[in-house]
Amino acid sequence: MSTSETLSIGTAREPEAEPAPRGHRRKGGGKWGRALRRDWQLYSLAVLPLLFFVIFRYLPMLGNIIAFRKFEPGGSIFGEEWVGLRYVKMFLNDPTFWNVFTNTLILGALTLIFCFPLPIVLALLLNEVRRRALKRFLQSVSYLPHFLSVVIVAGLVMQMTAVDGPINALLSYLGSEKISFMQDPDWFRTIYVSSEVWQTVGWGTILYLAALTTIDDQLYEAARMDGASRLRQVWHVTLPGIRPTAVTLLILNIGTFMAVGFEKVFLLYNPLTYPTADVISTYLYRMGLEASNFSYAAAIGLFEALVGLVLILSANVISRRTVGTSLW
Fold this sequence. Notes:
The N terminus is likely disordered. This protein has a two-stranded antiparallel sheet. The N and C termini lie far apart (about 70 Å). Helices cover about 65% and strands about 0% of the residues. The chain has about 325 residues and is an all-alpha fold.
């Protein structure tokens, strides 16, 4: 055998492996299988939250079918007979519903106007405090109301605004007449929004303070070198730095615009303040649980959810096109 033949035989390539047939998956499930095996402890932490949302958020959605079916207590959980848009037409033609709907819009708008920008302002003010001890004290004082239950907050509000409470005592001392705050419908919105501001503004600063720490200090240094005042630095450096966080929270707040806090309204209102205090959630409670008109309440609840969905989708699109920041 010649030398050239020997070299050709020694350098002969081995036959290439045949490609795996289409649809064949590698052992272990591919990328997702490897990630699951590697980080199974982290994925296991998501099991309980997922179960919570499935059981208490997604499965109850099946009950919306009774908005289009006649439901009778003791019968089928999905209603007895199909009635179409009967209950939708009922609440659309109900003057009480539209009064409740208007109250919900007004309370939601007032809560958004006051409770959304104030945490930003408070975060900016706290960011300017240089003494660490004073800053921690102010943060703790502003956070504390958030940890009080709604029942305690409602009790404090009722005690403060009672006829013989401290506010009326101060009014009497100043020579003014006492005011029945909790029986006067004109005062309910002021009381509700004020209590919301006191309870939520301090807690809302946490995310903004965290966002402030991500802003590069070199931007402030460059602004100072250009002669920018402290106010100019806040306007041109700080606010743009926290804009993505602010926009995200604004979209989320708009999404919950219609869901005005049921607990606080339910604890504070009474039949005398229904003209301004009654909102969709409390109206649903009275119609569904007290009057046992579950199909009518389901139709109103479905309408409320659809309005909230339209609001959050619209806010997300507008934010993406104007600011360039959105949830998705």
